[in-house]
Structures are given as C-alpha cells and as structure tokens.
Amino acid sequence: MSPLSELLHNLPPQYVGYVCTILLLLIFWVSWRLWRFTIFPILHPELPKELPYWIPFLGHGPAFFKSSEALVARASNYCGRQEPFAITLFGSTLYIVANPQHTVEVYKSNHSLSFDEFAEELVRTNGYSKWAAKTSYTDLPKDKAGFPNPKGTSFGGLIRQMHIHQLYPGDRLRVIEDQFLDWYDRNLQLKSIQTGSMVHSSNGNDTTVPLMAWVSDYVTRAGEAAYFGDSLGSIDPDLAQAFLEFDDLSWQVLYRYPAFLSGRMRSARRRMMQAFSKYLAIPQEERTNSVWLLKAMEDEARGIGIHDQDIAVLYFNIYWLINTNTRKIAFWMLAFLLHCDASLIEPIHAEIDGAFQGDTLTNLTYIYQSCPTLDRVWHESLRLCSNAASVRLIRSDTTIGGKRMLTGNRIMIPYRQLHFDGRVYGADPDNFHPERFDKAKGGGDPTKGPSWRPFGGGNTLCTGRYIARRSTLIFVALILRRFDLELVGPTGPPEPDIGRPVLGISGIKDTEDFMVKLRPR
Ligand code: HEM
C-alpha cells in the first residue's frame, strides 16, 4: 500500500473528502506552476521572461500596490534588466522595459503603442464626462477654425501642441517666467513670509518654517498666479492648500481608490473644481494675467461643445501638472543643499551674483545659463527623486528588445532605475554628488543619453520641462540670495517616499518634514 493510500485508509471518513480536495488543488497548483513558469517559457522564448508568482490571477497585484518600485526592482533582479520582462497584476500582464536602448524602441512604436487611453483614464477619474472624453478623442477636420490642425488630430492630440506653443522657449514662455519672477519678487520677503500660514515661529529678524510645507505652499501659489492670474486666488484664497491636500493623496487617484476610502482626497478635489467652475464663469477678458494656453484650450473645448463642468476638469489637471513636481523639486534642491552638501551654497552665491542688482533678479538668462553649480544641483536632485514611469497600451503585437509583447497588455518604463546606473552616473549613485554632472570632468554628459529620463520621452516627453527648470531656478536663486538658511533641531536627511506612485517627483513621508530658519542676509 502506498503512503498516500495508507494515510487515506487511516483517516476518519469525514476527513477523506477534505484531504482529497486539498490534494487535488495541490496537484492542480503544482501543474499550473510547472506549466506557467517552466514549460511555457521554454515553448515561447520569444515572450518576455516573467517573475513567477504563487497565486493564480492575483499575481503580484498586492505587492505592486504596496510599492511598485520594490516590485520592479525584485523582478529586474530575477529576470535581468537587459531584456524586457513581465509581471502579472490581477490577471493582466505588465511588460517592463528597463534597458535604456529598448526605451527608444518603445518611443518609436507610436502606431502600435498608445498613451491616449491613460490620458483619457486620468481625466475621466477626475470627473471628465464620458461624452466629453469621446468627443475629445475624435479626430477633427484639418481646416477647422481656431488652433491650426494640419494633421486632422483630435482635441486631445491638439492639447499637446498647445502646450508646446505656450511652454517652449519663446515669447509665450517669457510671459510665464516674468509672472513667476514678479510673484516671487514680491513674496520672498521676510514680512510676506511671516504673514503666511505655514510659519512655525518668527521674530523681527528671522522666521522658521517646515521646509516641505512652506516651499509647497509658495511654489503652488506662484504657479497658480503665473498661469491663471489673480482671479483664481480671489475666488478661493486657500486653493493652494486644497491642492496640496489633494496632491499628497493623489496616489489614490492613480490607484483608482473607491469613494469610501478616499473621502479627503475627493473633498479637496471637489473644492478645487468649484473654484474652476466659478473661474470659468468670469468672462475671459476679465481674467487678468491668465496665459494664452488656458484661453486657447477653453475656446477649442467650447468649439466642440464641451461644457464648463468638463473644462473645469481640464483646468484642474493643468493646475496639478504645473505644481505637483515643481514644488517637490524646489524642496529637494534646498533639502540636499542643507543636509548633504552645504559647502555648495557659497559657490552658488558667488555664481548667481552676476544675475542680480542688489536683491533684484534682473538677468534670468544668466541664472539659466551661467550658474553651473546651481544647474548641477538641479540635475542631481532630479536624478535622485524622479520616480516617474511611462505607460503604453499595446494596440497590436509589438517587438521590443527582441521580445514579443501581446495586444491588450501594457508596457511600463520605470525611469527611476535608469537614474541609478553607476556605469552612466559614476560612483556612489545612491547619494548626492552634483559634480557627476560636471561636463568639464571628462566623464561625458549623462543628460545626453537614453538613461536620462526625468521628463519621460518620446511623444509624451514633458512639455513643461523648460518652465519647470526656469521657475525652480528663479525660486532657489532668490531664496539663496535673500536669506541664510539654517536647519533647526536634530534632523537627518529626508528620503524620497518612493513607495507611492506620483506623476514625476517623489515627496517625503508625512512625518519627515523639518524646520528651517530663514534669516535675511
Ligand atoms: C520638475 C518638474 C517636472 C517633472 C519631473 C515632470 C515630469 C514629467 C514626465 C515624466 C512626463 C511624462 C509622463 C509619461 O510619459 O507618461 C511628463 C509629462 C507632462 N508634463 Fe511634466 N514634469 C514636470 C513639470 C511640468 C510642468 C511645470 C508642466 C506644466 C504644464 C508639465 C506638463 C506636462 C504635460 C502636459 C505632460 C504630458 C505630455 C504629453 O503627453 O503630451 N510638467 N512630465
């Protein structure tokens, strides 16, 4: 008698059914594992290697929600980064492309790989109506009135062109830069800072602020004024605070959290939508200092019958894009300088001097082009804190890196991993060393290759990258020129909170903000 028959024979009869079921499930499960992760890959070497999982259908879904970064790192250790690999999330396959050369192939496969579904999904999750989404992604006549449309693309496609028109170097970009400069010039004064709601303590000579909360408030309010003009702030003076509350919880939007688990995020978003609806009710010509892009988008949207409620969602998304990453990167630049290498502050003082007359920033081009230390701190902060990923839907089978990716699944390029490659960025890639971007040191320019992707790439390359850099450098240069910054209390350097999905730059954990004293120089 075999050991199994003996076991069954000796069992009380009421347990035999259970044991048989468990044994059958075990046989099924072992066969499934053997087929799925041993036999199938041998029969299909043309498909990307997959990170094995224990529970059918569920796959790595829960681990992805816990920390997509940690899961991708585990998968790339198991599968190797040279070739694309796959992970299963709740029954659907996500292909990961982590080799910089292969990312270029993804960008070139515009016809079979699409981003539109994700852009649409994002606006839909924020309340864009089904009808408006359908209308926005329907191709328009080439000869339509308004913004030129030589390729006969949809309103959704034209939005990118309109961003480029506003945000690429030229007169329209200068309008926004000047509005940023004007706002910061007026508000980066001790007296103005002391009247703000973020102040922890103050006296006649200095003021102490929690750095992340304060920078976020300032950069967001500046961004609001620079794009939307004054009218929005007069509708809701605390709109920036509502946005920050939303933004800190915006991973719930990206994970599509149900309403009952995301009340705070939804209520902050609702408040913002109300402000945009009121803003849209003001005649365009009365919205002082609002930039061309906003009006042009509104006109185009109205031209195809889209109503205020949906235009408010578009404005909300723009507000989100304008502010979410710039507030964080401005914080990181200051945080790294204070915590990791305060010796760089003196050289920055010296090099920005040429852009100032007294305390007034008069030469913006000088800040953008002639301040190498500041520029390296910008690049190194982006490198260390970028946590973006590009996602594409596969419309028809596509080969990337020699591996076939199947229709209906998704491809993800996780940019963060590219930025920690010691072969590209040199020694100690986990730590802050802005000198790695010093071209004069002979190591080449790491921002020129396919491993530099803080702004994504291909046809979704960030159209806001120029204004993001320029407005951040204006802010940091003005702060360093006008104030001495001092860390208050014992705090260690904060860590980017890479566990939560973001649209670009990671923030910090809620408890990791720290106090900084600002004293006029
Ligand atoms: C440090 C600041 C910023 C970072 C790191 C950043 C990063 C990114 C990344 C990684 C993408 C690509 C997403 C993808 O491929 O799926 C992107 C797209 C985009 N960003 Fe930014 N961004 C920044 C600032 C801004 C600003 C200030 C704006 C102003 C409006 C902006 C507007 C956009 C737009 C409109 C897109 C979508 C482009 C398209 O699909 O046509 N970004 N950004």
Ligands and ions found: protoporphyrin IX containing FE
Q: Radius of gyration from the CA trace?
A: 26 Å
CATH hierarchy: architecture of the largest domain: Orthogonal Bundle
Number of strands: 14
The low-confidence runs, each spanning 5 or more residues with pLDDT under 50, are: none
**Helix coverage percent of residues?**
40-55%
Distance between the termini: 91 Å
CATH class group of the largest domain: Mainly Alpha
In DSSP terms (H or I, runs of 4 or more residues), the helix count works out at: 23
- Sheet of most strands: 6 strands, mixed
What is the secondary structure topology, with strand pairs?
Layout: H1 3-10, H2 13-43, E1 49-50, H3 61-66, H4 68-79, E2 85-89, E3 92-96, H5 100-108, E4 113-114, H6 116-125, H7 130-136, H8 155-167, H9 171-187, H10 190-194, E5 201-202, E6 207-210, H11 211-228, H12 230-235, H13 239-248, H14 251-254, H15 263-281, H16 292-303, H17 308-339, H18 345-352, E7 356-357, E8 360-361, H19 364-369, H20 372-385, E9 389-394, E10 398-400, E11 403-405, E12 410-414, H21 415-418, H22 422-425, H23 465-482, E13 483-488, E14 515-520
Parallel strand pairs: 1-2, 3-12
Antiparallel strand pairs: 2-3, 4-9, 5-6, 6-14, 7-8, 9-12, 10-11, 13-14
